[in-house]
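PROTOCOL LOG
Step 1. Enter all chains and additional molecules of the complex.
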Amino acid sequence: MSGFPILSLMLAVPLIGALACLFLEAKAARSVALIATLVDFALGVVLWMNFDVGGAQWQFTERLEIFSGFSWALGIDGIALLLIMLSVFLMPICIGASWNSIEKRVGEYMAAFLLVETLMIGVFAAQDIFLFYMFFEAGLIPMYLIIGIWGGTDRIYASYKFFLYTLLGSVLMLVAMLWMVHTAGTTDIPTLMAYDFDPHAQTWLWLAFFASFAVKMPMWPVHTWLPAAHVQAPTGGSVILAGVLLKMGGYGFIRFSLPMFPEASAYFAPLVWGLSMAAVVITSLIAIVQSDMKKLIAYSSVAHMAIVTIGLFAFNTQGLEGSMLVMLSHGLVAGALFLCVGVIYDRLHTREISRYGGLAINMPRYALFLLLFTMASIGLPGTSGFVGEFLSLGGIYQVSTWAALICTTGIILGAAYMLYLYRRVAFGDQNNADAAAMPDLDLRELLMVVPLGLAVLWMGIYPESFLAPMRADIAALDARLARAKPVGDSAPTIGKVKPAHEESVAHGGSH
Amino acid sequence: MDWSQSLRLIAPEETLSIAGLVLLLIAAWGGDKASRLISILAVAVLVGAMALVAPALCGQAMGPDTSAFFGQFRADAFASYAKILIYLSAAATLVIAPAFFERLGAMRAEFPVLVVFAALGMGIMVSATDLLTLYIGLEMNSLAAYVLAAFLRTDGRSAEAGLKYFVLGALASGILLFGMSLTYGFTGTTSFSGINAAVAGGLSHGALFGVIFMLAGLSFKISAVPFHMWTPDVYEGAPAPVTMFFASAPKVAALGLTMRVLLDAFGDQAQAWQQIVVFLALASIVVGAIGAIGQKNIKRLMAYSSINNVGFMLVGLAAANQQGAAAMLFYLTIYVAMTLGGFVAILMLRDEDGNTVEDIASLAGLSRTRPGLALGLAIIMFSLAGIPPLFGFWGKFLVFQAAVDAGMMPLAAIGFAASVIGAFYYLKVVKVMYFDEPADVVKGESDVWHKAILAVSCLFISPLGYLLTKWLGGLAATAAMALFFAS
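Step 2. Run joint prediction.
Step 3. Record the structure below.
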C-alpha cells in the first residue's frame, strides 16, 4: 500500500459525492450519498487492515508542496486512525437516519453531510498545522447550513450560536499558530510536536488553543451552544455532531496542547480538572431535569466529554488511553442514542419524554437496543463505556484523588438520568395512545442500530483491538509529558505487613 | 535618463490617454447610439493596457531603470501589479454597466470614457514617486469618479451621492494638499526619494504633521475609520455598476498610493506612522463590522464590508515591511475578486420589472428560487467573512501572519477577534437566502456576462484558489520587493 494516496482518496470520494449531490434530485442524491459513504467506509477498513501496529509512528504519509506557506501533508498515527474509523463508520448510518426524515432539499442536505465527512477526515489526517486549521474551521460552513436549514423551530438562533462561538475560539488559536510557525520555522505537525517552546510563551499559546478546543469539546461553561445546536439539528446532524465533531476538541488536546506545550498543560491542569469536575456534576444534574430527550443526551455528552478531559490531563498512559476510548465509545453511544431518539421522533414528531411511555410493549426490539445503549452510556461492564471511563478515572486517581472522587459521581448521576429516561420512555403504562400505536423498528432502522450495538459490545468485551493501534502513540505522548508530570496526591505506598505474631507479642508486651 | 526612455515607460498611460481622447471624439459625434461600441473599444483598450504593464511584473522590473521623468513616475513591478488589478476592475465594470444603464435608458457615451480616464488617473497614482504626480493622478481619478457617482442624473439618490462624494472628496484633497505642503516645506523636496533622504535623521515636528495630514487625506480615499462617513451613502446612492467600480479599482489605487507614500517616502520613519496605521486598521475593522450589523440595504452592507476589509489590509501596512506589503497586495487581489463577484451578484438580483433588488429581506429563500445565484453569493459572503477553505481566509491569514512575524501580537489577536463580529452580518445574508421562506422577489434574468464574471470570481475564491498561492504569492512578493528596492 505504500505510496498509494489512500488518505487523499478518502478525502476525495465524499467531496466528489457532495458535488454530484448538488445537481441531483432527491432519490439519486440519497443513493449517491450512501454509496460514497460506504465506499469511504470500505477504504477505512482497508486503511485499518494495512495499518502497521507497532510500525512507524506516522503512516500513509503524503506530502505535496503545491501551496505557498503550507503544504498538502497528510498522515496518520494510531489515534488519528481510530477517529477516522469512527467517522467513516458513523457516516453511512447518518445518511440512513436521514433517508426518509429529510424531505426538502435532499440534494443540498446530502452534499453538506458529505462535505462534513471530507472535512472531518481532513482534520484527523492533516499533518500541516495550517491545513489542519482549514479543515477544522471549514466544518463550520456545512454544519451551520445543516442546523439552520433542516433544524427545528429555534434553528436560526442555534446555528448562529454554534457558528460564532466556535469561530471566536478558533481565531485565537490561529494567532497562536502563526506565532508558533514563526518561532519554530515549520508548519509540520510532527516537528512541532517535538519542538520545545519557551515555557512562558507556552502559557499564552496553551490558552489560545484551549479557547478553541474547550468550545469544540465542549467544556463547561462554554458548552451552551451544544444543547441548542443538538436539539435543533436533524437526527443525522446530531449523530455526527455528537459522534465526531465533539471529538475534534479532544483530538486537538491530544495532538496539540499536550505534546506541544507540556509545561503549560501541567500548569493549567488544575484548571482543567476544576472545569471537568464542575461539568460532570452540574451538567449531569441538569440532564436529570430535562423533559426533552435530545437535550438530556446533549447534556450527558458534556458530562462524558469532561471525563475525556480529566483523563487527558491525568498525564499518564492509563488516563490518555482511557480518554481515547471514552471518545470512541461516546461517539458510538451518543450517536446511537440520538439515532434512537430520531427513530421515535420520526413516528410521533415530538421529543417530549412525557409523550411516550411503555414502548417496551409495542416496540420490544427498539426497547432492547435502547437499553443496550443506555447501559453503555452509564458505563456498564461489558459495554464500551465501562472500559474508557474506568481507565480515565483510574488515571486521574494517580494524580488527584479529589478529582477522581468527584468525577466518579458522574457515573452514578449518569445512571440516574439515563435509567430515569429509560423508565419513562420504555417502561410504565402506555398512557399515550398514539405512542402505543407506533410500529417497531423496520429493516432500515435495524441496519443502523445493529452495527452500532455490535461495535459497542466489541469495544466493551475486547478493547485490545482499539488499544493496540494507539498504544505506541500514547506511550510516546506519555514520554513527552514525563518531564512536566504533576505530582500525584494519591501517593500509594506499599506498606510492610508486619508478621502477625510479632504484633501480638508487641501487643501483649505492652500490657 | 532621456525622454524616449521615459515615454517608453509610460506607454500604458499614453495608450489610455490617447484612446480616451479618441473615444471622447467618437462619443461627441456618435452620440449615445455609439455607447455600446465605445464600451467594447474601452474594454479592448484596458485589456491592451494590461498587456503593456504585464511585462514589468513578469520581468521583475525595479530600480532606477523604471524611473521616468526624473523621478516623477515609476513603472516598476509594484505599479504593474496594482495597475493590472485596476484595469481589470475597470474592464469588468464596463462589461457589466451597459445592461444596467440601458434598461434605465440612461446609457450615455461618456460613461466608458470616464471610466477610462479614471483608470488612467489611478494608474498614475500607483506609479507616483513625487507629490505632484501623486496629486495629478488622484485628482484625475476623483474628478471622473464624482461624475460617475452622479451618473443617473434623474435619480435623486445618485445626484446626492455625487454631491456628497464631491464635497467630502474635495475636503480630503485639501487636507492632503495641506499635508503635502507641510512635507515640502520641512523637507524641501517633493520627490519621495528626496523626502526619504531628508527625513533620514528623524522627522521634524512639521514633517510629522505633514505625514499625519497626508495620512488623513489618504484615509478619506481608502475610507478608513474615522474618515469613512461618506462611504455607505455614496455606495448606496451611486448606480450599482459604479459602486462596484468604486469598491474595487479606487481602493487598489488609493491603498497602492498609501503604500508608496508611507513605505517609500517615509519608509525609514515607520515608527512615526505605525501606531496611526494600527489605530486606523483596528478602528476600521471594528466599526466596519459593527456598522454593518443593522444594515438592510445590501449595497450599504457592502460599503461597511469594504471598510472592514480595508482595516484588514491596513494590518499588513502596519507591519511596515516587505512581507506586509506583499500580504496587502495579495489581499487586494482576493478583495477585488470578492468585490467584483459580490456586486455582479447584487446586479443579478432583479425583480420582475428588471429593477435592482437592494433590500436584504427580499433575498429570502433565494436558495430555492435561484440556487446558482444564491450559492455564488453565499460563497462570496463566507469568503468575505474569512472562513477557510474559501480564499478570503488566505488574505486575512497573510496580513496577520505579517503582523505576527513583525511582533505585533496584540494587533493580530484583537483584529482576528473582531473578525468574528464581521462574520455575523455575512452570516445574516446567508441566513436570509438559505433559511428563510422564499419571498420570491428576484425573478429577472441576467445576461451571460454577469454569469461569467460571477462564475470566474467564485472559482477564484473557492478552495481551488489555493493552487494559485505559489504563483500569485511570487508576483506579490516581486511587487513588494520593487516597492522597497526603490527607497
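Step 4. Note key features.
Residues 3-485 of chain B form one domain.
The beta strands of chain B are 67-68, 73-74.
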